[in-house]
Amino acid sequence: MAQEDLRICLPPLAQDDQFYTEKKRLSDSRGLRYEFMLPVSLSSDEITKVFNQIIHTARLIHMDEIELYFVEDEEFGPFSPRNEIGSLNLILRKIDCLLRTASQQAIQVLQDLRSITLLKLSSVGTNSEAVDQMVIDESLNNTEEDNILLTWAENNGVRSRLNIARFKGAGRGLIASDDLSVGDVALEIPESLIISEDLIVGSDMYNAIKDLEIMTSDTMLTLWTMQERFKPDSKFKIYFDTLSDNFFTGLSFGIEALAALEGTLLFEELMQYKEHLRQQYDMLFPMLFSDYPDIFKKEIYTWDRFLWACELFYSNSMKVVFTDGKLKTCLLPVAGLLNHSLCPHILHYGRVDPTTRSLKFPLSRPCERGQQCYLSYGSYSSSHLLTFYGFIPKGYNYYDFIPLDFDAADGDSSAKSQHMVRRTQLSKSNGSHTYGLPYKLIVHLRNALSCADLTDSASDGKETDREVLEAILSIFNPMLEELGPSDGPAWESSSWDVKLALEFKELQRIIISSVVASCNSGLELLQL
Ligand SMILES: C[S@@+](CC[C@H](N)C(=O)[O-])C[C@H]1O[C@@H](n2cnc3c(N)ncnc32)[C@H](O)[C@@H]1O
């Protein structure tokens, strides 16, 4: 009966989504729906079929720029752990909403759909390629410092179902103290314990520097932190005391590590960021020393301490939307101990709940007791994570790509067309159609080289494709040469920064070699 049909609606593509046009094109070409009618008499097989249709739409809604670039026409996902977790959580929210008012018969169908969704969620990340496998360093666990921090946090209103543990190569992290399910709040930080620009307003420092043209709220917070860190009566003393004396990010790379990166894009980027920070410091000091000697003490505001504070904010801060609607950079005691994963447990956070006036960290996929609970810092490439966080995630990072800028086909050099490649063996399409390389890149080059279209006759297409593959090789072979041979196991004994630089170079080598290998096997195919 019609009145017993269940209606599940996914949100239509948002017109203000910056990728609306591309998503709409894909959605139309795939005939995706946003409304699903489920008769309550559906069998389990039929429910699974409907679930598959719903997840295809949810995945498209959640696609980001990189996923949209690399998607093949016949590819329906999963596209990345982040996309999958976001999509399954959207479906779960819709089901839970309907369950509140569902009839007895409808409840059964919704429960079946919910079980399928939860099953899928628990299987995300079981493929080891996608997951960071960190090893607990038992020798360093249960330190007095960790207990003091957790007790202080609890006394100040933090609610946590997580404990501190130490991990080889990653420092501290948080592990589940009991089995946590999807939707459970793993951690809740009261607004009063969030360190943001709001703490500075009204202070002497604030009144002195707020009108300076070069001052931003982030810079003010950095300067405040440099001082607050050493105040014996600071409300946050226990938190500051647990912070590391050094952050070991790419911004602290020494000369040898930078030299090891020469020839990579990252080398240029690191040099620019370092230069930018130095310029920022030079604009502030000695000017603030002479204008406000009572507030800015020379021994506190040294270059090394400024760099320390910048690295603290880059690697430990989060952007939070407060109840006044403002987005602010914040330091969050305890939450700042969550490590990053390509396959995170916590994906949706960052908005202060107006009812509880707290920031909650709910789980988007289950986390068993004793397992590390991971956050997603964002869809970041390894070069970004190395620069600002000082690590390269283990496993396949979907956001590691090498950008390629081509002049527009009409010769207008001001109009660039942005393309990219990533490790090709993970391309879903390894047939001769695109040789395992991104479809959009191949089409662009086919058009640029001789306007051959994808459905042209075999012989013409072959000649164009040969030129396309040779053009790609002419870009990537020199890159591979520039990187030189693999550095071998000797780097294991190098200093932390050289090790990280060489690890990054090895990652670049893997991506570039895979592109070269795809081109070469494509050329062989074309000779057949
Ligand atoms: C927000 S803090 C997390 C807590 C930190 N591990 C600690 O001991 O204070 C971010 C820092 O943790 C480390 N980290 C986070 N995720 C990591 C990962 N997946 N692998 C290695 N290190 C990681 C990096 O040093 C990064 O700069």
TrEMBL record:
<dbReference type="GO" id="GO:0016279">
    <property type="term" value="F:protein-lysine N-methyltransferase activity"/>
</dbReference>
<feature type="domain" description="SET">
    <location>
        <begin position="160"/>
        <end position="378"/>
    </location>
</feature>
<protein>
    <recommendedName>
        <fullName>SET domain-containing protein</fullName>
    </recommendedName>
</protein>
<dbReference type="InterPro" id="IPR050600">
    <property type="entry name" value="SETD3_SETD6_MTase"/>
</dbReference>
<dbReference type="InterPro" id="IPR046341">
    <property type="entry name" value="SET_dom_sf"/>
</dbReference>
<dbReference type="InterPro" id="IPR001214">
    <property type="entry name" value="SET_dom"/>
</dbReference>
